[in-house]
Each structure stands twice: as C-alpha cells, then as structure tokens.
Specification:
Chain lengths: ~850, ~170
C-alpha cells in the first residue's frame, strides 16, 4: 500500500477517535467553544487530507459534517439529532477506512442519504442563524493570508485561520488555505513501530541481566579498576531501563477514549440518562497491560449502563437523581494500578444470584446457603452466569464477566466486586504497573533460591530458637510475636511440599492488602532488579509463583507470589476457604473486642487502657529519674519526658519502674504504674461512671476481674499543660472541626481527648440518626468520623445524604472499623467515604484527619 | 495421523519422498523428532526445580538468556525415573530444545543420536494395540532395518495435563 495512504489511515484513525470523544463532551456543554474549535479543526484536517490524496467519497462525507459543525461554531444551537447524525457520519467514515486499509481503495457506493441529512441539518441551522441575525465571528483575511504565505503557523495563528476559514457552505472551497491549515503543529513526536519498542525492551532486559552478572563477578573480585566503569555502566543501564520503560507507558485514558461514545449511544438506545465520569485519565500503565484491559473495561461499562442504571422514572421514584452515574477511575497504589468502575444503579440482587447459582449447581445447595454476600457476588465471574431475565443486544448473554476475570487474571490482576442493593455496585481491578522489571528480595529456602517482590515486603526479622524473636506454635500453626502483635508465619518450605520445620531463619514480613503475615525462609541475600519473565504455560496453574527470572549468576529463580502463598494457606479471604471469607459477616460480633493493656496501680487495683493508645512499654531504673519544677522527668531518647504516676502509685525511688509511654506529635509522657499485668483482647462491657471520677472513665470486667478503665484525658495535661489544649496558639485555630459519631461511649471517651490533643475541635454524638442534624448546624465541619461496626448501612446512608448536600462538598468522611476488610473498603468507597481506618489505629486516624490525602473516594 | 500431516511438519527436509528426524533414545526405545521442530541439542545444567509442578516437569533452566521449561521424557512416556537422580541441580542431562508458541521447552532424553533421513515408504501409522498413553504421543512408526523408530508428536508431548487451573 501507498506509504502516504498508510500514514493517512493511522493518523485519521486517531483523529476520529478524538472527534468521537469530543463530540460527546460537546453535546453536554454546547457552549464550550474550545471543544468545538477542536472538533472543527480535526474534521477539517481529515477533510483536507482526503482531498489531497484523492478520496472523493470520504471527502464528501467530511465536507458535509464540517458544514454542520461550521454552523455550530457560528452559534447555531446544538441538537442531539445533529450530534447523532455526525456520529453516524464518523461511523461511516470508519467503515470506509476499514475497507481502505484492506483493499487500498475506497469502496464503491454513495452516502447521499447521510449527506442529505447533514445538509438539511446545516440548512436548518443556518436558517436559525440568519433569524438570529448574529453578526458572526468577524473574518480576518489578513491573518489568514499571512499564515498561508508563511506556511509555518503558530498554534494561536492557526486558530485565527480556522475562525476566518470560510465555512464550506458559504463559498466554493479554497484548497490552498486548507492544505496550509491541515499541517499539524503538534509536539515533537515520532511514530515508532511497537515491535521496535518491544525489541528495545527485550534488549534492555538482557542488558540488565548482563549488568547483574557483571556486578556479581565484581563482588567476588577486588579489582578497583573494574569497579568504577562498572558503576557507571550500572547507572547508565538503570537510566536506559527507565527511559525504555517510559516509552511503554501510556495514559489509561487511551484505553477508555471510546467509553464516552459508547455510553452516549447506549443512553440514547436505552432511553436512560447516564453520566459518565472519568477520573485519573493520566494514570500511566504499561502498553501491554493497557491492551489487555481495554475490552474488559468496555464490557463492564456496558453492563453498568444496561443492567445497573435504572430507567429515569424509576430513579426519580426512588429519590435518586434522574441521571445515573457511572464512575470510572484509575489511580496508582503502591506498585499497582487500581481501576474502579462504580455505578449508582440498583445494585446486584444477591438473592437472585444465590438462586441462580443453586439453579446452575455451581456449588452445593447447603454450601451456597452458608456463603457470605461477598462470596455470592463472586459467582458473577463464573462462565455463563447471567441473571438478566431478558437478553438485550447490549449485554446479558452471560458472557462477559467471566471474560473480564480471565483477562485480568492473565496479567496478574485481581478483580473484586461489592454491591449494595439499591445503592450501586463497584468493581475494582487491581493490576500490576508493569510486567517487566521489579525489585525483588532474593531469599533461600532449602537448597533453592526464590525472589520475593520488594513491593510487598515490610521488614525482615531474624528468628532463633534461643533469641527474643522466636517462633511459637498454636496447634502447630507457627506465629511470631512482633511488637505486641501476633504475626501468622508461613514456612516457604512447607507450602512447597517439603516439611522442614526450621526454628532458625528469617521472617519476611509481607503485607497483602490489609493483612500481614510472615514468610519463613532459611536465609536472605540481597535485593536485585529482576526482569520478570512470565511463567511457563505448563506451570502457570501453581498459585505460589507469579513468574520467573534469571539472576546475575545465570541461575533461574522463581518469583514468589505472596498473594498465592497466603491464599494457599488460607490467610486471605480468597476463593475457597469459608472461615475467612466470612470475615465481613462476622464484623458485628468482633466489633466490640478491644485490646487492652492491663496494669496494676495502687492497692492491688487493676486498671486498663486501650493498647492502641500506648506508644511503648518500658522499664527504667528509677535512679535515672530527675526532678524539676515539682515534676519527675526522665531523659528519654534525648528529650525530657515527664513521668506522671497513675492515681495511687508512688513513683519508685530505686529499682525498676514500669512505664507506659504515650506520645503525640512531639509531646511524650509516661505513666508510672506498679506492674504491667497483661495484654488482653476482650469484648468490653464498660459501665460508664455517672460522675467523672478523677482519672477513670468507667469499669469493666476483664478476665473475670473488675478493672478500671483509665481516663487519659485526666493524665495528659498533668504531664504537659499544653497537651489537651492542643497547642492552642497555632494549630487549634486552624484545626479542623471534626464530628465523631460512635455509639460506644468508651471509644468516644478515648478518642475525643486524642483528637483534641491533635488540635482538632471535636463534636460528638452516639447516634447516627442525630448526626445529620449536628452536621447541618455546623457549617464549618471539616470531617466526620463514623463508626461502621454497629450499623454500616446507616453509616453509608448518612454519607450518601451528606455528599448530596452542596455545603458539605469538602467534607471528609472517614469510617472506623474494627476489621476493615477489602469488602468493607469497597462498600465504603461506593458510599463515597474518603477512607476507612482501623478503629484503634489512632495514628492513621489523625493522619487522615490532618492531611488531605487522596482517599478511597477518588477510587469510587 | 496421515502422512500428509507429517510431510508438512518436516517441510524443511525439502525432499518429496524422505523425512528427516533427530533420533533420541529413552530407555530402550528409539524415537524420532521431526527436524523442523528441533531448535538445538544441548547439555542441560543447573536446573531449577519447581515445587508443586507436574511430575513430568523437571524444572527451569537458562539457555542463553531464555528460560526453558525442561520436560523429562521418561516421565512423560510413563517410564520410571532416569537412572541418574532427577532434578538435581548439578547433574548434566542431554536435552533437545523445542519451540512452541514462542515458548522454549527442553525434552530431557537419555541419549541423542544422529539425524536420519528416512523414506516415506517405510512410514506406518501407529499400531492399534499400542498403549493409549504412547499412541497419543506418537505420529507413526518407521520400519528400520534392525529396529523400529517411533515418530513423536511434539505438540502432543507438550500437551501436559494440568490440574484444573486455580
């Protein structure tokens, strides 16, 4: 085929995609002249090029479309029929182009009907214009002439030409002007064949490997002459790798450029009002991955429009806005990209999916009965699963969601689905940023080495039978005490089918989603940039590994997939294991459990404080205490820390004094206690005191003994008068006004002082029902912290109500949960929460409240 | 399995009436691999075993920067493990390199023989009473003067039954 034609085809294809997208935008904001100018310019360019290489049929079509758009540009009102006609024209053009690509020439036939329609529209519009007797945009023939004669035009000049260019209806065309104008004045870019880039990538991968091999050799030799150039080579390789990776990255917007058009057409076809919101178009993804997710994305958006969004009348009857919203968003999160497709439609009918699953015998009846909602929802990813009563042309044939899952699985992604009946559905897809090069920790288990992606590794802990960190067992399940928490341990050798129960080794603390667990390995070497090569097709079914690579010494090692490891042993709510997946359902009973630090203070009196508020426990030689200004002080980590005895405790004069240390920002204090007794996790039933007794909030039965719960708010100011006043001078004035809605009196009592100490103004309420009223009364409200354990539905509903009000536009809504499961996260993001924080993670809560971090809501 | 298919497979041979094979032995049996499918013959060293892999897969190895999946032909053909202990990283194994769909595989055999050019007239379909496991892997038999050569179906060998994908 003619090279010129080839060039034309690829360029025009891109132009037309842009026109598609822009037209839909234009229909929504007909007064946006920028968009119009853009469209006009694009169509004009296409037309010009058609004329130039002699494609009469295409030229006639674009000419007709351009006339209509010319009228719009001159101020004619934009009707939906006109936009439809132009979109049809563009489809026709695409068809002709497809033929062109195949045969190298325009197909025979004519488009008189379409052209006629366009002409009629143009005539109508021009009538309208003349009726309005608008002067129109003044022509500037001088500028046009100048631009034409210099041949090189700056973008702003180009605009002038376009404005001045005669609308093709007015006069016969002046081809010269168009050709000059048609020259694109774009950024300095170059079209590169994808194969060339792929080849480049492979070569860089090999270079990285070779560099690694060289580094390995130089590590064994002490040759200074070799070291310096090798260092340089290493740097250059890294930069080259970066650069080449960048060429593969494309904004995700490319993958969804067709969505606006699809949604527009669907909404016309289905007589629904649908608003498509795209967020995070600039998020960059590897080209290869982009290609793979394009179709699944389109499919899911179609599904939303067809099934999820209700008819306008139905929506109004339900008190929802008439137009449904489909929100597609993308954002980076760690080493991966999360794409969320959320709608505010009718949500999924769990009961119906349950019935259908039983009908299709996807699992035993009894089994299905017992499944949690989240598990039931996952059935929609089953091949051939569709609950649609009638099959429409758009979707509902039971193909689709399974294809989505297969495609996403293929690139190592995870699909999740959450739905609230009547409120909407959210599907999140988490996919790796790139498949090519990652940083990995090389470990050994048995004779063999493995790579663990650095992105999931939190820390390394050395364990030894005799040392402080040793592995303990609960019914043969190994655990490790790590900073007062139990970390489940998975022996790598164990999951690989070898039963080596070693006591010594390293724990690679791994975080997958919300969960942490440790992987026990024999030894740890170093971190290495590895080129991820896909697993052999014959081995891809093994969930333990996500790929393989060649190390610097030439050996092949397997890349451990922590997700797979966790799922294999059931540490994650995955596909099969019921007990864990039930987590979402079990939230309510678990909600009331609190981890408390129990200590003795004064005459055999047990007292307790939530462990989450405690920073550290110490035992310090009393001889180190100093006194000043009537207070006891300790030089602790280079600072003077006040020591306050708990009511009834005498600070010791000699021997070891147990201290409970609290810190907040740069303020630190220690409570002196008689002895630290235990850490217990228990469902607390606190009896609040009617009258605030000094230093005690209430009492509870812990391990069968009456225990007083300490009121921190009483002690903090004793250590530092500023504490509760929250550094009034600077932060308080600017501190956000926070409304805390928490049914548990205890938790409220605990959190309020902490929040106040961080410089926030706090209003509180125990009742969700009252919250909306309180919020309405405080226009300056900056954030709402909302308990999601007691009644998540009510919380979601409240968030929905608040979000609907304009005056709360900037409000941050933060959910509190004892156990924030991924399901809860998704549900919360659907309800447009900003973030969900673990209930006793006060650091995270304060960070959320003080920083305006982008949260879940961006995802929704 | 028609002879026509075999001709297509070994089109590289270029002669109408003869077929070229790389011969290998597994146990006592002489086997032939269509020469068009064989990339190279090499000594496989430093094989990385893959835990939980199917029995037939010995492991992975690095062949000039490519990761190759090594398949033990003894296991694949239902024979007992090779005399040399399997999967050991240091032992040297003779391997035939095969390419399928852009992926590299190595068939670990006992011995690699010579390249043989055989007359099409000596080719016969697989005898009907052959063990079904074997019959599925063979394309046919060549009658040699003193022995029989089983022509292997490379794609069938690589069609390893996997547990239902997780």
């Amino acid at each position: 085929m003619d090279e010129l034609l080839q060039e034309f085809l690829s360029e025009t294809g891109e132009h037309l995609d842009t026109v598609d997208r822009e037209l839909v935008r234009f229909e929504q904001e007909p007064n946006n002249t920028d968009i119009l100018r853009n469209i006009f310019r694009l169509v004009h360019t296409v037309k010009g090029t058609c004329g130039f290489i002699g494609l009469p049929r295409l030229e006639a079509l674009t000419h007709a479309a351009e006339s209509v758009m010319g009228q719009f540009r001159d101020g004619a009102s934009v009707s939906s029929t006109a936009v439809t006609a132009i979109l049809e024209t563009i489809d026709q053009i695409k068809e002709i182009m497809a033929e062109l690509t195949e045969k190298g020439q325009e197909p025979p036939g004519n488009d008189d009907a379409l052209i006629g329609e366009l002409r009629a529209l143009a005539a109508k519009a021009s009538q309208e214009l003349s009726a309005k007797e608008e002067p129109g945009v003044p022509l500037d023939p001088v500028a046009a002439y100048l631009a034409k004669s210099t041949g090189e035009s700056r973008p702003d000049e180009l605009d002038l030409i376009f404005r001045a260019a005669p609308s093709p209806l007015d006069k016969p065309r002046a081809p010269g002007a168009e050709e000059a104008a048609a020259r694109p004045v774009g950024p300095a870019t170059l079209r590169v064949n994808v194969d060339t880039l792929e080849h480049l990538m492979t070569m860089v991968s090999e270079l990285v490997l070779t560099r690694n091999q060289l580094l390995e050799i130089s590590r064994q030799q002490e040759d200074a002459g070799l070291k310096a150039p090798l260092q340089r080579l290493s740097l250059i390789t890294a930069e080259l790798q970066d650069g080449v990776m960048k060429t593969r990255m494309q904004p995700i917007g490319n993958a969804w450029s067709k969505l606006p058009r699809i949604v527009r057409d669907l909404s016309t076809d289905l007589d629904k009002k649908i608003e498509l919101v795209l967020e995070g178009e600039d998020t960059e993804l590897d080209r290869q991955i982009l290609e793979l997710i394009k179709d699944p994305l389109t499919h899911m958006v179609r599904n939303c429009a067809d099934h999820a969004i209700e008819e306008p009348a139905e929506r109004l009857a339900l008190g929802k806005p008439e137009a449904g919203t489909i929100r597609v968003s993308a954002y980076h999160e760690g080493g991966s990209v999360t794409i969320a497709i959320a709608d505010d439609g009718r949500g999924m009918d769990v009961a119906r999916i349950r019935r259908k699953a039983t009908q299709l015998a996807l699992a035993g009846e009894a089994e299905i009965e017992k499944m949690s909602e989240a598990q039931i929802l996952r059935f929609v990813f089953h091949p051939g699963f569709s609950t649609a009563e009638d099959v429409t042309a758009i979707s509902g044939r039971g193909v689709g969601m399974d294809v989505v899952k297969v495609n996403v699985d293929a690139i190592g992604g995870v699909v999740d689905i959450a739905s609230i009946a009547g409120t909407g559905t959210a599907i999140t897809i988490k996919i790796p940023l790139t498949l090519a090069i990652v940083s990995a920790l090389i470990v050994a288990s048995g004779e063999q080495r493995f790579a663990i992606p650095q992105a999931v590794v939190r820390e390394l802990v050395r364990v030894k039978a005799s040392s402080e960190h040793r592995i303990e067992r609960i019914n043969d399940s190994p655990v490790l005490r790590l900073r007062d928490r139990l970390l489940p341990i998975i022996a790598l050798a164990g999951v690989m089918g070898r039963s080596a129960m070693v006591e010594d080794g390293f724990i690679v603390v791994t975080q997958v989603g919300e969960r942490q667990f440790g992987i026990l390995v024999d030894s740890v070497f170093h971190t290495e940039e590895i080129v991820v090569k896909p697993m052999s097709t014959k081995l891809r079914h093994i969930p333990l590994f996500s790929g393989n690579t060649i190390l610097g010494d030439g050996a092949v090692v397997l890349i451990v997939d922590p997700n797979g490891v966790a799922r294999l042993v059931g540490a994650l709510p995955g596909s099969q294991e019921a007990p864990h997946s039930n987590a979402a359902g079990d939230v309510a009973p678990a909600a009331e459990r609190t981890t408390m630090l129990v200590f003795r203070a004064g005459a055999d009196q047990l007292k307790a404080v939530p462990l989450s508020l405690v920073t550290r426990l110490e035992e310090v030689d009393a001889g180190l205490f100093e006194s000043g200004g009537g207070r006891t002080l300790l030089n602790y980590r280079g600072k003077l820390m006040p020591i306050v005895p708990v009511e009834g405790v005498e600070v010791r004069e000699s021997g070891l004094q147990p201290l409970v240390i609290f810190s907040e920002g740069d303020l630190t204090m220690a409570l002196a206690v008689d002895a630290i007794v235990d850490i217990v996790e228990e469902a607390l039933d606190i009896e609040m005191l009617a009258m605030a007794e000094q230093g005690v909030v209430g009492s509870a039965i812990i391990r069968g003994r009456a225990t007083e719960i300490l009121d921190l708010a009483h002690y903090l100011p004793k250590a530092n008068a500023n504490w509760l006043r929250g550094r009034r001078d600077d932060t308080l004035a600017s501190g956000p006004h926070v409304l805390l809605i928490e049914p548990s009196d205890f938790l409220r009592e605990m959190l309020v002082p902490v929040l106040r100490a961080s410089g926030m103004r706090v209003s509180q309420s125990a009742d969700i029902a009252l919250a909306a009223g309180i919020a309405a009364g405080h226009a300056d409200l900056g954030a709402i912290v909302l308990d999601l354990d007691r009644d998540p539905e009510a919380g979601f509903a409240l968030a929905g109500r608040l979000r609907a009000e304009a005056k709360h536009a900037g409000l941050r809504i933060i959910g509190l949960s004892t156990l924030p499961t991924p399901e809860l996260h998704v549900a919360a993001s659907l309800a447009r929460f900003d973030e969900v924080v673990t209930k006793f993670d006060r650091r995270a809560l304060i960070a959320e409240l003080t920083e305006s971090r982008p949260g879940l809501r961006q995802a929704a | 399995m028609s002879t026509q298919a075999t001709r297509d497979e070994s089109g590289a041979a270029g002669f109408e009436d003869s077929l070229d094979y790389v011969t290998v032995t597994v146990g006592e049996q002489l086997l032939g691999l269509p020469i068009g499918r064989v990339q190279d013959v090499f000594i496989a060293t430093r094989i990385t075993p893959v835990p939980l892999a199917p029995r037939e897969i010995v492991g992975l190895l690095n062949l000039r920067g490519r990761i190759v999946t090594a398949i033990c032909m003894r296991q694949r053909m239902g024979r007992s493990a090779a005399p040399a202990p399997e999967g050991c990283a240091d032992c040297e194994l003779v391997a035939v390199g095969i390419d399928q769909g852009g992926e590299a595989f190595a068939l670990i055999v006992d011995k690699v023989g010579e390249v043989m050019r055989l007359e099409r007239s000596t080719f016969e379909p697989v005898p009907i009473h052959l063990d079904s496991g074997w019959a599925g892997l063979a394309k046919g038999i060549h009658r040699l003067e003193d022995r029989l050569l089983v022509v292997l179906d490379v794609d069938a060998i690589l069609r390893i039954e996997l547990p239902v994908a997780a």
